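hey team, just a heads up i'm posting the complex here instead of the shared drive bc the drive is being weird again. everything in one block, sequence lines first with there labels, then the predicted structure for the whole assembly after. its two chains so it's a bit long, scroll down
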Amino acid sequence: MNNMITSSGSQREYTPSDRIQCDAFQQMCEATACVQNSALKRWKENGGKVVGFLCSMAPDELLIAANMLGFRVRGTGSTNTDLADNYFTNLNCTFPRHCLNMAMEGEYEFLDGILYLNSCDHIRRLYDNWKLNIDTEFIELIALPRQTGPDQVKFFTEEFQMIREKLESHFKIKITDDALRDAIKLGNETRRLQRRMYDLRKQDDPPITGAEVLTVMVAGTAMPKTEYNVLLRELLEELEGKQGSGKEYRARLMITGGVLDDPKWINAVEEVGGLVVADGLCFGGRIMWEDIDETIEDPIEALGRYYLADRPSCPRVVDKQEERAEFTANMFKEFNCDGIVGAKMVFCDQWNVENYMLKSDMHEQEIPFMSVEREYITSGTGQLKTRIQAFIESLGK
Amino acid sequence: MYTAGIDLGSATGKCVILKDNKIIGSRIAPTQAHPTEMANRVMKSALANAGLSSVNEISTIFTTGYGRLNIEFATENMSEIACHAKGAHWMIPSVRTIIDIGGQDSKVISVNPDGSVDDFTMNDRCAAGTGRFFEGVARGLGLDLAGISALEMQGDEPCAISNQCSVFAESEVVSLMNEGHSFPNIIAGVNLSVARRMRGMARKVGVSEEVVMTGGCSKNDGLVASIGKMLGAEIVRCPTDPQLAGAIGAALFAKAKMERESAAA
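-- predicted structure starts here --
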């Protein structure tokens, strides 16, 4: 018998903070719901430096070792792209538009620096236009290889070393190997805690929804890791041993795709009965599935190796498509999913090609896969809900 | 026992009441209000149409369409994809391909022999080439939708339409008028451009020899003819109002649920 989606429920816009009442989770909700969150403000008030980055392949641990807060730049809260539209072509996606627009409105004045990678053409244009329009004093571009062999790892490690030296000379600091090793330990601690949270999702009736998990994951990119780890431990203590989120669902779904930081989008999926229990997102599973190797002697090499080659990759990397398909299929099975939704941004070439291949790879293994397009800011979820509901119905759920 | 389906679309609300697999009441009304109010309105007048006095006489009610969520008196809701497939299959059991063009979206659905959804494709976000687009075209020509229908079979040299954007429809049509094209040719061009688009979508899920069209735009004869020609398929006309397909499907799902429950009881 199907779980019914009854017609109760409020018309009010979803906020993740509604359900889990513990203080740690509420603080994470705040960090995810806006750009300038309280933890960030406290950090700045105490004289801390903040360096932003646009891509999950940026070396956060390098910033931690420099005693800085690494902040993953988002367009959260942006309502329009009127200022930024003049600097992009019609073929650029809405993520860089919203980020630049917010920066042009002064929302990113708190940044002491920003690290770019040429993650895709859209981010690359954002780098150009950020340089043109925003006076962040330290702006650097890290060259990102397309393949992941030993030569490329060596090159990427050298790029990180160059950034390390530039940070040292610009901010007049020293980033020691020991500090880097400590930062790697701290980052790995975060990853372990996040994986513990993901473990909870394997249950038949998980105590946490997909929208709530994304909230926790995004918060981890917006506040000091020391503070975040404490909150996450508190949250885990609250949730472990509990069952059920009160969310009725018909199917267990996995989401794959690029930049998705809005719990409201996941909630739209969950409102029509698709509980999101796993993901291959760069605000989710992909950034914590593997640890940075703590046994490699040179910590900067450990970073280069991890960020380019050792963690689940993004379609920007061209020699690992088979590995990504395997990662996706394994996660699908491990979390007992019923179907996969490939969420891609309009105009994202990388995920467009990836989803096409992923769909046929999954088809071969009889894993249901549906691709949907989205814009960066979630609005008008009607079509999305129809597609997801039809997908769930087609799963026989 | 009665069951009902309510299809709360972007342009119109539809309600169908079934008894013993027959439609005994139905209603189509323009969407002008909050989904709950629309649901109440179409339900009330479909009840009157069926000669029933109260919604309490309906045992099971399913909703579908954009406004399907959060309707208090509904038992359950289903996606319009499943409902259009079910409704079209009920009208024409041999159907395997359905083209549904509504007020703001268009879908191509392939259907299994039992009426369940095999695969589907749907337009992305914007309302290009849907009911809203035709409304914009009509405004540009200074006509209403009926006025378009009256002229559409007369065009023999369809104009090239470059833009199906509902927002730009009016200005596109005005420039064609300024260039001296006749109304029938402009309308033929509009139908052809939508037909081309539907062919693209239909290719994705595959087309059977017989195609059924549902949704408000399937009442547009010129468009139906254009799509048939473009697909090289026969468009089978529905015996019942094709705009009701979604609501019929919802009512049938309600009926199936009612029967399951009484069998269990």
